[in-house]
Amino acid sequence: MAASYSERVSSFEDVLKGPKIDILELSKMCFNGVPDSAGMRSVCWKILLNYLPKVRSAWQDALAKQRQLYKDFLEEMIIQPGSKEYSTKRTDVTMEDHPLNPKPDSQWSQYFKDNDVLLQIDKDTRRLQPDIGFFQIATDYPCKELVDASTSLETLRKRIEHTMFHSVAVAKSRAGITNMKTSQKPMKMEFGHDTLDDGQEAHWEVLERILFIYAKLNPGQGYVQGMNEIIGPLYYAFAADKDLSLREHAEADTFFCFTNLMSKMRDTFIKTLDDSPSGINAKMDQLMLMVKRCDSKIWLQFEKQELKPQFFAFRWLTLWLTQEFPLPDVTRLWDSLLCDEDKPEFLLCVCCAMILSQRKIILEGDFATNIKMLQHYPAIDMHELLRKAIKVRETCS
To answer: For residue 2, what pLDDT band results from cuts at 50, 70 and 90?
Structure first.
């Protein structure tokens, strides 16, 4: 008989309140879903992503240290470079350093490279989860140094506005003089979420800042499109938590959890590793072998129609299915994915189960029908899908 919700909450509390967390026991419990109780998913994910240590008494010091470290990153990479003194130093054009200086160590060269990265991050985070309103609304915990309207800091928002074309109002006076007035309203984009008024900061802007800092700290990898989709569920789990004490530090906690998660899935975001044993192409090949083993008729249909996994599974695997399901379903799915250490990789099992679940459509459909269905996956019960994925693992183990 399945345990009641209150019994499940009590079981999680017993594990989390112990002096030392039993990771194996916690992983088993999380695999079956974390209850939506205040602070529970947030704490569990932080443990599973090695952000919180196993010894509970060490949590307070560990969190204080990491959160202060993030403040230092913020100061060094956004607040200080945006200060008036620093900006004056950069805009001081000299013979040694100027905007057209081709040297890679040029301060101007680095500034323009950072702007290119920032523009891409801005475009992607504005488009994050357009079907829900969460990322568009103001956070209760903005960065105070950056949202103050009177500040002279060049914030990321201002850098974006300075880099892109300003909308201007053009009018002629009676004397025939043309007047051009830059709009003082928050900048409106042709895509995605808009910025809020001065003094406010939308959740997507917080993610923009996290990703920019991550890119600066990881120049070898930098920012890659799709990272915005990966960071979204993490931030949502922390910033929408019912426990306000945890919600307050969602930005710093998300940064470190995202960094740890990317260390596990880094190879799928590095193009030069696509053909390596741990790269995305190897994962797609493994997925099709699983399909062949579980249902040879579906595999033969894919072969006959030349329906390659690159057409649909590339996105599934690199983005951890964040674009295939609603955010609440993704959150439940990630409860299982984050604690998975078994082989074959459970993400592959879920993807295989997604294909097997559409058996009738695939066997009866032509190429156009099947590719459309796989690229726009139909609604499905997540719990049923996960049960099928467990059976796939048993078959392929």
So the answer is: low
DSSP 141-154: S--HHHH-TT----
Give 171's strand partners.
179
Is residue 182 scored above 70 in pLDDT?
no
CA 140, 144, 146, 152 torsion: positive or negative? positive
- CA triplet 358, 359, 364: central angle to 5 degrees? 105
Furthest CA-CA distance within the chain:
85
Calpha distance 35→8 (Å, rounded): 7
What element of type H or E holds 168? strand 168-172
The owner of tokens 């695939």 is 362
- b/e 131-152 (16+ beta carbons within 10 angstroms → b): eeebbbeebeebbeebbeeebe
| Residue labelled with tokens 């205040």 | 38
Q: 318-336, pLDDT tens digit by residue?
A: 999 999 999 999 999 999 9
Structure tokens at 17: 């309140």
Joined tokens for residue 264: 């596990």
Supply 267's token pair: 């190879």
Integer Cα distance of 308 and 302 in angstroms? 7
CA within 13 Å, CB half, 109: 9
Domains assigned to the chain = 5-57 (1.10.10), 65-90+106-265 (no CATH), 271-396 (1.10.472.80)
Q: Given a cut of 80, is residue 161 above it in pLDDT? A: no
pTM for the model stands at 0.86
